[in-house]
Design goal:
This protein is an alpha+beta fold and 373 residues long. Helix content is 17%, strand content 40%. A hairpin with a 4-residue loop joins strand 15 and strand 16 (228-232). The longest helix is centred in the middle third of the chain and has 14 residues, at 203-216.
Length: 373
Amino acid sequence: MYFTCHLAPHIARFLIVAWLLFPATSAPALTVRLKDVARISGTDGVQLVGFGLVTGLAGDGDKNPVYTVQAFANMLQRFGMSIPATAVQAKNIAAVMVTAEVPAFARVGSRIDVNVSSMGDAKSLTGGVLLQTPLLAGNGKLFAVAQGPVVLGGFSVGGSAAGVQKNHPTTGIIADGGKLVDEIEQRVVQQDTLDLVLKDPDFTSASRVSEAVNAIFKNACQTIDSTTIRVTIPTEHQGRPIEFIAQLEALEVSPDVTARIVVNERTGTIVANSLIRIGPCAISHGSLVISVAENANVSQPNAFSPGGTTQVTPSTDVSVDEKKGSLIPIPELPTVEKVAASLNALGVSTRDMIAIFMNMKRAGALQAELRVN
């Protein structure tokens, strides 16, 4: 059983839409595959980054920043041409940062996608080609190189007076543009043990995962902390860790869920799960609206006399509308349905609803974790 709430910016009420699979009093614990709530330690990817140059920008490149012209001059020296940086023009070139992520167990020669983003004042990377760029890990070791034409998901066209832009023309991607030149060491099994790492750390969830594994593989698990469960590979599976891991990932477990409300003020979206509770409280809701209008009055007092001038006189209109607030008692709300009904009765706007949730949390009435994005 779960609940989702969506509050559009133009709607002044809090709407909660509930999907009830079972009655609230007899709802079974949510069961999911172990691989959906935990990962095997040592199977993480590695992030790579590099500095490169994109050429062929037809005048949309950088406006000769120092790092761009210096990088271009250094590149020319690699081809036997010694040209001072002061003599280089960079209008067809852009300095870019290149990022990529290597998945676990990738081998030498494997292809990866790379992202390219301008770091200077280039207008667009449309039609550009990334020159061969080394990609380094956080420890400074070279693992891959990238090169190829940049594909953009947007454009920017126009003149000095007007223009049209879609998405971001200064970022792009090169599909399979990176090539692995060195392998990343991955260690999953150490001394016949492996570690399960919960994606959402929780002591109760860790205990339940350990119980689920021990129910199938006797005394195989040891809970280290709220994140890590250490698993000893049974004797019959030693030497065949892949088969054992596959069986582990397929196990059904029941992770614990924290009462939580997530609010996105920009989009006006509120998502709450079924575990939220609100204690007895009282809410006073009122609003103050101040309108300020600035007008410009044009007059020509000497329009028919020689040398007459035109005068512009500004005028400002200010209006204040304050609605009276009322203290509304809210009883204890043990279910999300009752929370929805009470909040709907307030008839508040998106911004006010977010403020109410925050103040409920501060007052100790909201028994849930509140996250505001």
